[in-house]
């Protein structure tokens, strides 16, 4: 007697499964060994992701700063919200499927790539080393990445700075995390700086130190939620040099190629190339706008307090300085703080109400100038949200070796 798996040709089953959401695919993995093998194959995951990208252009994930505290012991986790549609309606509230023994700071790192969320967990107890995790909200898979075998540098009386990036190496079909460690040390009574770069490979499930030198002595200024594009991750920052006895600060973009594992730099628009006289304040941020790298300048404390605004530039041709084009100047409300630009160009800002001393989030369409509120309760003055673009996928958070082991262990039903 024919089973349900034998009733349709395999290629027909394959193409039907491609169009199903992840929640359905998770159920159909239990139908039979053949279907499970299809759904967990790398070719299927890649094609399913490609279709998901073509139809899910208005999705975001937000990390709330409200941390859940469970009674009965020091156990902590984080809460997320999935937003979708042109109005970014909240479709689902998710708790991170992991409990921490130590209180974690909500201002860690949130980066999304092909349906995987890379998180950096920082603890209020700064003697505890950061933890890096990968999470797929669609499949519910979660894991803490192993620690690097190289000890973290320690400088008495100072801080060690960490900067992270997350992306995909399409040559080896590998997801990687890059970590830049910047620390200071004392040599012959003088303070010196040094940089170490490490890369985590999901395929190898391990960290290794890269023998690379940053192209410039750059100070990374942007938060880690800056764009990933075609295997390249970017941070905004600046370097400095002396000119006629004065310090000149130059805005720049530091990039990392996950395939070649090399760093590079890209210029900002000419209007932001040089800032003289004082240390650059982080008013420039990067975004990914319709698959192109963009930068936006949040103008704060202008001469007229009711004329806060945001300027958006897009890099039409990657790496070509002359292709920077100014798209919009969007007038914001007074005391509005630009936070994020979605993949389809919607600007999210944080609005502070001076009377109630509460924060709320608003969204602006830069073309129509239409405003709307994000569907959140008002946040008090101590709260904030982190945002990332999001695409649902079947990509596994486990290494290729672990995934192969799980497939071979599946029994037919």
TrEMBL record:
InterPro entries assigned: F-box-assoc_dom_typ1, F-box-assoc_interact_dom, F-box-like_dom_sf, F-box_dom, SCF_F-box_component
Domain of life: Eukaryota
SUPFAM superfamilies per UniProt: F-box domain
Name of one Pfam family that matches: FBA_1
Ranges for domain F-box: 2-49
Record protein name field: F-box family protein
């Amino acid at each position: 007697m024919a089973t349900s798996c034998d009733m349709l040709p395999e290629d027909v089953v394959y193409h039907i499964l491609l169009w199903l959401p992840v929640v359905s695919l998770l159920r159909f993995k239990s139908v039979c060994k053949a279907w499970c093998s299809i759904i967990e194959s790398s070719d299927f995951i890649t094609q399913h992701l490609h279709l998901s990208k073509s139809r899910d252009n208005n999705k975001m994930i937000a990390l709330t700063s409200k941390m859940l505290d469970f009674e009965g012991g020091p156990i902590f986790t984080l809460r997320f919200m999935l937003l979708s549609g042109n109005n970014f309606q909240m479709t689902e509230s998710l708790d991170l499927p992991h409990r921490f023994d130590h209180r974690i700071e909500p201002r860690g790192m949130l980066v999304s790539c092909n349906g995987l969320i890379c998180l950096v967990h920082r603890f209020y107890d700064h003697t505890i080393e950061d933890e890096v995790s990968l999470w797929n909200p669609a499949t519910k898979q979660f894991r803490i990445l192993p620690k690097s075998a190289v000890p973290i540098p320690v400088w008495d009386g100072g801080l060690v700075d960490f900067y992270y990036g997350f992306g995909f190496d399409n040559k080896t079909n590998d997801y990687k995390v890059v970590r830049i460690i910047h620390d200071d040390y004392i040599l012959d009574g003088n303070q010196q700086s040094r940089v170490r770069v490490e890369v985590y490979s999901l395929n190898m499930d391990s960290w290794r130190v890269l023998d690379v030198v940053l192209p410039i002595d750059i100070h990374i200024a942007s938060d880690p939620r800056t764009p990933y594009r075609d295997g390249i991750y970017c941070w905004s920052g600046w370097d400095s040099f002396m000119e006629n006895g004065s310090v000149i600060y130059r805005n720049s973009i530091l990039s990392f190629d996950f395939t070649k594992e090399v760093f590079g730099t890209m210029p900002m628009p000419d209007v932001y190339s040089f800032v003289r006289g004082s240390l650059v304040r982080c008013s420039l941020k990067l975004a990914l706008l319709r698959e192109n790298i963009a930068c936006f300048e949040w103008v704060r404390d202008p001469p007229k307090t009711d004329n806060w605004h945001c300027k958006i530039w897009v890099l039409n041709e990657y790496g070509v300085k002359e292709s920077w084009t100014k798209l919009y100047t969007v007038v914001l409300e007074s005391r509005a703080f630009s936070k994020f630009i979605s993949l389809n160009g919607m600007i999210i800002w944080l609005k502070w109400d001076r009377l109630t001393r509460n924060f709320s989030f608003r969204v602006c369409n830069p073309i129509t100038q239409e405003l709307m509120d994000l569907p959140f309760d008002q946040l008090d003055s101590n709260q904030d949200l982190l945002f990332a673009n999001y695409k649902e996928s079947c990509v596994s958070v486990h290494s290729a070796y672990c995934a192969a082991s799980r497939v071979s262990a599946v029994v037919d039903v």
